[in-house]
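During the reporting period the student researcher (J.K.) took over the structure-prediction task from the postdoctoral fellow and processed the backlog of single-chain submissions. One of the processed entries is reproduced below for the supervisory committee.
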Amino acid sequence: MSRRPPKSATLFVNPRSGRARRAFFDTVDALRESGIDVDSVRFDIEPAAIRDALHQTAREDRVIIACGGDGTIGSVVDGIIGENVLFGVIPAGTSNNFARSLGIPLNARRAACTIARGYEVQVDVGEAGGHYFAHAAIMGLNVEFARSAQRLRGIVGRFSYPLAAVQAYRQRRRHSVSFLESGRRIGPVDVFQVAVLNSAHFGGPLGLKAPRAAVQNHELRVLLLHDLRLRTVLLGLPRIFFQRHLGLPGAQSFGVKEGRIETPKPEPLTLDGEIKAQTPVDVRVIPGALRIVVPEPREKAEPTFLRRLVVLDRSLYDLVTNRMRDRRLDRVMVFASGIGTKSAVWMAISAGLLWAGGRHRRSALRTVAGVLLAQGTSNLVLKPLIKRRRPFADTQRLLIPPPGEHSWPSAHAASSVAAMIILGSAYPAWALPLILLGATISYSRVYVGVHFPLDVAAGAVVGLAAGGAALSIGRKRRPIFGRA
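J.K. obtained the following structure tokens:
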């Protein structure tokens, strides 16, 4: 429902999240520009500290804001349920599943504008072991992931999540679980994971949805994962991508309003990514317990394959520019992007081959022809025709000065692939270094923030065609009928 914008805000920030610290200043600026004064900032997100902060800053026109990922949101929700306060979210985590489920923008400034101008709705929360959760309570594989990520965070920084995921998968084990609900018992069954979901989105940037899960349907969705063999996961990937839900062959799901999870021995549970409970544990849904600000509702079209592809493209861009950057790599990627501008490195190699003369001259001329064809097709034909906007039109994540307006396809990738093909066919011994150089230049364009991944993929296709065309220059062709 519509409402009057709040006049003041208490902002809870996760101090351990680098992205939350970066989003903090954008959030404060955007809120103040919208007429909301951030007069209280808290870095302690324990439930007791949150309740204490609420009592100290109690005002009717105040909004409570969580700036962080699902764990931060869950911690703040755990502290405010029952206080009848208005809640807002600035997504600044790795997955941001709860924010995705409500359509909250992942950009800090736009999320802040949503808090100022959006709609107030009441959504469900879950309860497990006396704690509240916004997204999910999970036992099994996710607990191992949380433990590994916490151990690795101080060692490898932003790479802790992918490494923890690999480690958790390798150390996966089955758990004997029973679920009791309304007098019926399911199990005991052997599962790798039990997920009790309150909101639909799962898997962060992958954009997956749990079947029939929603934050306003007054029930929790239980997902039992029986089979996690690599073969099963790989066979399920096409269905996951095209249908965008967790429809793995080895999964079972059902809806409950309340129930109980039992195991032979106590097993820990994560609530919104943080270990807070253990089995045996009672879980239940609390309908409409959270007042939260969401974007103005819009009629959604049925997602097409192209729409899903664009969503995946933007999600991968967010993943690279938000989670995969590292200060040690920044200079390397900026340098790689620079030497690929106007095909400088490929033209320099061609000039060296021309100077060497002899048989190298033909390879140099073919490389120049292929690169110019790739550049011309990308910059003079396809970009003006497609007119796809650069990603930084909506987000400020650039490591280099902004280039031209249009994005699709990447001319850097097109010229690099064309040069790789031509030079690699002429000098097979140098094929691997050439591939690494071209791949680094192509990837750098996403890393520095000026291209979507699909721009680079499209550029690679253009480069393949241009390189193939250039290789055919000067080659003798067999006549189709007899001798020429």
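The committee noted the following: The domain at 136-286 is CATH 2.60.200.40 (Tumour Suppressor Smad4).
J.K. will present the remaining backlog at the next meeting.
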